[in-house]
Amino acid sequence: MSHTKTALVTGAGRNIGRAVALALAREGFSVIVNGSTDRAAAESVANEVRALGAKAMVAMGDVGLRDECTRIVAAAVAEFGRVDVLVNNAALRPLNAFLDLTEADYRRVMAVDLEAAIWLSQACLPGMLAQGWGRIVNFTGMNAIHGYAGRAPVSIAKHAVWGLTKSLGKEFGPRGVTVNAISPGPIAADDETDAPSAYRQAMVARVPVGRMGQPAEVAALVRLLASAEGAFINGQMLAVNGGAET
Q1: How confident is the model at residue 204 (pLDDT cuts 50, 70, 90)?
Q2: Can you tell me the distance from the alpha carbon of 12 to that of 81, in angstroms, rounded to the nearest whole number?
Q3: Exposed e or buried b for every residue in 196-218, given b needs 16+ CB within 10 A?
Q4: Residue 245 counted as domain residue
Q5: Above 50 in pLDDT, residue 1?
Q6: Domain-located, residue 49
Q7: Number of helical (H) and strand (E) elements in the chain, helices listed first
Q8: How many CB atoms lie within 10 A of CB 100?
Q9: pTM of the full structure
């Protein structure tokens, strides 16, 4: 591929999404920074991308809505010509007792945590297939795959993302597009400076390396998957969790 590659990262205003945007920028990718509500955060990340010598654009929008997914990708294509790498990072993780779960709450989690990956992939794939090269990276999650107490819709959605990943990897791998999922363990937030909560301490206790992961450590795997060297990794769920049980 002779053109500068482009990457669309959803939920890129902070934490893992921000780290992914910066990691790909360091590799020379032009980055489409997506956020849903905090434009200032997205603009800040775009400026960090530009400071690394890469191009950036901000594409705000609610990826839980199919029309917004289509619009975001159309804006990216209008600016850069195509989307070479799609990173489906945006997610909701609300805490709801199952017996109190409303249909609206359930559908909102499914829309953002699962359906966004479906519609964004559908919008990006034609350009990837036309050039015979593309990368789609989805996110599952250690606790989601184990089963969340109080977060049933999150577990349902993330299991389905794993199914989507395997299916798309088989369908489009033969045409030059790899599709993989990353399952992070407990990852520290950008602004996590306070003493860890009891919940965080319990999570760390499950991690053999004895600490929280850093967003950059997840981003490093995205960088590999987006590279030429990552071309033989396809249809996999890869854990970045310090050795915790997956």
Answers
A1: confident
A2: 20
A3: eeeeeeebbebbeeeebbebebb
A4: no
A5: no
A6: yes
A7: 9, 7
A8: 8
A9: 0.95
